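Fold Annotation — chain and its backbone
Encoding — discrete vocabulary of local shapes
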Amino acid sequence: MAASDARDTELKDDGRVIAWLESLLGGQVVSWERQPRWRPMWFVDIDRGGATERVVVRGERSDTSLIFPLEHEMLFQRLLDEHGIPVPHVHGWCDEPRSYAMAAVPGRPDFADTTTEQRRVVVDEYLQALARMHQLPVEPFKAAGVISGTSPNDSAMIGVRRFEQHYRSSKVRPDPLMEFVLGWLRRHPLPASDREAPIVWDSGQFHHADGHLVALVDVEIGHIGDPMMDLAAWRMRDTVIPYGEFTTLYDRYAELTSRPVDLAAIQWHHLFFTLTNQLSFHNPLARPTLDTDYMTYAQWVSETNLHAVETLAEYLGIDLEPVEIPEPVSSPVSTPHQHLSRSLRSISVEDPYVTYQIRIAFRLARHLERADQIGAAVTEADREDLARLTGHAPKNWDECETALENFVLADEGRHDAELVVLFHRRWQRYKALMGPAGSAMAAHHTMQPFGRWLG
């Protein structure tokens, strides 16, 4: 699809959404804006008999499929609302474009300009909401069609299987780190349990205002699963939205539910969840479309893949060392690269869609500029690491990826420690390629360690 065709489709979708909302809610749209991003969302003000209401319409990703259908996301959110869990109220479903509408909720998703005490109160209220959700009966959710397993143990793995199935069905090139960690998780299975509850899984997402929790948001991958999954997933988000010490938060959750937390299960679920960005975006990064926000996805996986390696290193008791990043060198295209980055940064337009596309191009240009400076040295260092482990490294990058994946698949755990170190070195270098040294794109944020719970 050409860029102009994509823009025409967006404009048609805008009109359809406005007309549908006016029919659904019996009002008149007075203002609206479409959020330019990897997943379409509309923010709409609609007059319903003299009172103006704010509505959010949430659509589907265009460059990769969702792990759970969009209808399922809406169903799960509606059921949580009906059972007293604070989530945005669902208004209804739109067939074209595929989307659903919900009430907008006030507040903010982070703790900027928030005191430590205010944060403590909000996070505690969030834990209370999680605890109430986890104590809801699962039968009404299952009867309504919420995805679950055939048993509590199966429910704890059904989301894991869906992510891996998505990855397997869309895989188009070697992905040695994913094969390594997925293989490790298969060799070290999740401990059995009788736990089963409605879960949001991608936890830590909520709005708060005036010092109190307003609502849980973004239940895209909610389903019936192991409640420990909700205690695990937000450990990564804590690197950018600090929630507090997880030892304290887990103790508080245990107090609220009158059940001890299963730290072994939390650790297993946490390790798997570090893989979910790469499992989701393997294909768009290998075969991007015009809709793909390439550098957003690349930055996400550069961060969370390092989290995966760091988590496994902590579990195995491996001390990781920082890798030496090559010094930048000039090339015949250094000046054109710099000129392209500066030119894209200088463009200012009023159209939000065009502004967003320019931002995508600017970040990609800076990545390519950085790759021109250090990319050859990074690739050679990766080859040297591979040769030290396997005794041979092909000349071409894609052949090296194939060789490393084949080694991982055949190894069956014999070189786990060596592979953890190798992958840590590789992904530190990849992170350095995200943008200029010192830039936000190239920065890595480490997670809170599990510490005392590891033997």
Notes: The domain at 28-103 is CATH 3.30.200 (Phosphorylase Kinase; domain 1). Strands lie at 28-35, 41-48, 51-59, 90-94, 99-103, 197-199, 206-209, 212-216, 223-225.
